[in-house]
Amino acid sequence: MTRLAWLLLVPALASAQGASDSVPVQDRLRLYYVGYPIGWERYSITRAEPNGYEYAADFDYNDRGRRTHLVASASLARDFAPRHLEIARVTDTSRTVETRVDVNGGTAHVLSRKVEADVSLPATFAAIGGNQPVSQHLLLLRYWARHGRPHTLSAVPGGPTNELVITRRGVDTVAAGGVHEVLDRYAVDGVTWGVESVWLDREGRLAALSTTGGGLTLDAIREALVPCLAQLMASGTRDRMNDLARISRSVRPVAKGSVALVGATLIDGTGAPAISDATVIVANGKIVAAGPRLTTPVPKGAHRVDVRGKTIMPGLWDMHTHVMQMEWAPVYLAAGVTTVRDMGNNLYFVVPFRDAVASHRIIGPRTLVAGLVDGGGPNAFGALNATTPEEGRAIVRRYHALGFEQMKLYDLLAPDVVRAIVAEAHSLGMTVTGHVPRSLGLLGAIDAGMDQIAHLPIRGAATSDTVRALIDSVKAHGTVIDPTAAWGELLTHSTAEPVSELIPGVINLPPVLAQRVNAMGIATVDTATAHARMRQTLGVLRALHDAGVPLVAGTDEGVPGLSVYREVELYALAGIPPMDALRSATAVPAKVMKLEKTLGVIQAGKLADLIVLDGNPLERMRNIETVRLVMKNGVLYRSADLWRAAGFKAPM
User: Fold this and answer.
1) Are 199 and 148 in a shared domain?
2) Which of 129, 276, 425, 568 is the most exposed place for a label (fewest CB within 10 A)?
3) At which of 250, 272, 302 does a domain end?
4) Residue 551 — pLDDT band, cuts 50, 70, 90?
């Protein structure tokens, strides 16, 4: 069992009602992606002769114009033991089986991710093909209940077998349509990467579910309970924050209070040359002094940490992330990322997460938040949409009241709505970032007042007149670019090139997350073509930098921490000077977010956010991956302890 699973394991509460598994069941679930309704899942469980059940599900949604349609079927014994499971992806013209499990005695023939294998089975196991269709979780929980609620349970497929931990967490009472329902709340760890929340009613029927899997949040709720969605998801978030608090307590700091880091090379983030044999003094969460060891005496009583041969630099920033699950908190710190900017999230999660970190209840990166808004319609994204200027202004005020620093615009906003949002945000002291709305284009977006742009909206050869004209306009407006180049590379590289060639740290991922990440890329593109396209992207990055356009490092849905490393490495590969590449993930984001007085560099009076690396990234940029110690707010941790707390293997 993973360390994370052990930490989450708590005694199940007795509840005879929660163990009920009445059949038949026929239900419809509303599906939400990052809070926006995107489709439906219909499923049924019926009796099958002589002794068993049949399961069928139809999972169908539209995410921003991209349809996902899965159909599933399963045959189950009377105790819900799996005999057969099949999940297929359906389009208008094809049907492709993605998962199949055929059980024959003590073995199963498994098809998963295009690989077939014969698997030896333990005495108790469940068959579940990932988190979609979501109603598979009902079969899992019924099997678990019928077999005595074991502390751990094997699942097939999943590398080829995967360990699950299921715990009952409590009860939520909801009211919808004048009817009160009592729901049992469960935590399920191991179906995907990260803990899922699942609710069953007292008849044992699926009421709601929330899942991520290393990406964005998918929520499902029985149609009649839709008005209760926010209440249930907030309850699940409280569970996750309690889990994270337990994990946080399990990680012991190396030092805190008065601390002296002695003997390392210091890259202070200001752009000044590195200082060899330096000392950094920290007290009460702030940097007291930083400079050459001979002129920076260690105060009496300070906890002295010998870091000779290593390199100290400011804590890293991830300026484009979606912190959708609690597991990312220790991962970010393990990688040396001490501050993140969330670029679109469920309010029920990101606000409690941000506040729990700020209150020091949990360990995690300082979290700044941009409020997502789109223009509405069937292809919109996110829970809050604006189709009129007044709706846009009201959404800005709502985010501002929640303490958000920025607005994030999305694709479908109309020009007059964009202008209203920008004006309202600026009047409240907020800045505006996000996608380039399709109705405006890049030049129209910056003319409308967008302060920053997410992703890289400039395509083509850096030497072309069109590209140079766009770069000149971006520079003239003072616009900041958040390129997410590493995310683009991860999505578009050739699958003939292992992801580990781009991001070496993926070899340390938990198996279920590793499966997701290693499956990314394009099978129909050869490596040479993918590299040529990436060189063009790097040329634009170099041209933006040379023109004086601020670049800030962000990862989007990449691997938190690890993708920050790759983003900075790509800037260096583009020909951006190493010091400037490092500052894109330290000092520049702090200035962009108006926090340069307290963060981004290592100087007396700043907050003590810093990292200690085995190697010097100015000499070899891949040394940025050698983080060994992480300090946030003056508390020093071993990176390896944080990795293990998150269920990762600690890098060598």
Assistant:
1) yes
2) 276
3) 250
4) very high
Which tokens is 275 given?
């200082």
Place of tokens 């499990």: 101
Q: Give yes or no for a contact between 579 and 269, defined as CB atoms under 8 angstroms apart.
A: no
Residues 16 and 149 in one domain: yes
Which among 357, 358, 271, 308 has a CA at the least distance from the CA of 602? Answer: 271
pLDDT at residue 616 above 60?
Answer: yes
Listed in sequence order, the residues at least 6 apart from 5 whose beta carbon sits closer than 8 Å to its beta carbon are 152, 163, 165, 189, 190, 647
DSSP state of 357: H
Q: For residue 516, which phi and psi values (nearest 5 degrees)?
A: -65, -50
Q: Is 593 helix (H, G, I), strand (E, B) or coil?
A: coil
| Digit-coded pLDDT (tens) for 560-590 | 899 999 999 999 999 999 999 999 999 999 9
The length of the chain in residues reads: 652
Average pLDDT, integer, range 57-69: 97
Take residue 549 and report the two structure tokens written for it. Answer: 């356009």
Give yes or no for a contact between 159 and 509, defined as CB atoms under 8 angstroms apart: no
Core vs surface per residue 563-585: b (16+ CB within 10 A) or e? bbbbbbbbbbbbebebbebbbbb
User: Of the candidates 289, 350, 260, which has an alpha carbon nearest to the alpha carbon of residue 35?
Assistant: 350
Instruction: Provide mean pLDDT across the span 525-547.
Output: 97
d(CA 214, CA 217): 9
Neighbouring C-beta atoms of residue 49, cutoff 10 Å: 5
- Residue for token pair 């679930």: 29
Q: What six digits make up the tokens of 282?
A: 């920290």
Same domain, 619 and 557: no
CA-to-CA distance for 230 and 222, rounded, in angstroms? 13
287 and 384 fall within a common domain:
no
Question: Residue 386 belongs to what domain range?
Answer: 316-599
Q: Which residue has the tokens 């309704």?
A: 37
316-321/337-342 β-pairing: parallel
pLDDT at 7 exceeding the cut of 90: no
pLDDT of residue 1: 43
Strand partners of residue 90: 95
Q: What is the pLDDT averaged over residues 310-329?
A: 96
Burial of 516 (0-12, 13-18, 19+ CB in 10 A): middle
Query: Residue 51: pLDDT band by 50, 70, 90 thresholds?
Result: confident
**CB atoms near residue 432 (< 10 Å):** 24
Q: What is the pLDDT of residue 10?
A: 37
Dist CA 240 CA 515 (whole Å) = 23
Strand 153-156 and strand 125-127: the pairing is parallel
The residue ranking higher by pLDDT, 11 or 181, is 181
Q: Cα–Cα distance between 143 and 158 in angstroms, integer?
A: 18
The predicted-structure confidence for 209-258, as pLDDT tens digits, reads as follows 999 987 899 999 999 999 999 999 999 999 999 999 999 999 999 999 99
- Cis bond before residue 50 (omega within 30° of 0): yes
What's the pLDDT band for 21 if we cut at 50, 70, 90?
A: low
Which residue, 213, 230, 231, is CA-closest to 158?
213
Using DSSP bridges, classify how beta strands 179-189 and 635-638 pair: parallel, antiparallel or unpaired: unpaired
Token reading at 501: 């060639």
Same domain as 156, residue 269: no
For the entire predicted model, the pTM comes to 0.94
Residue 299 and residue 204 share a domain: no
Q: What is the 3-class SS of 132-197, one letter each residue?
A: CCCCHHHHHHHHHHHCCCCCCEEEECCCCCEEEEEEEEEEEEEEECCEEEEEEEEEEECCCCCEEE
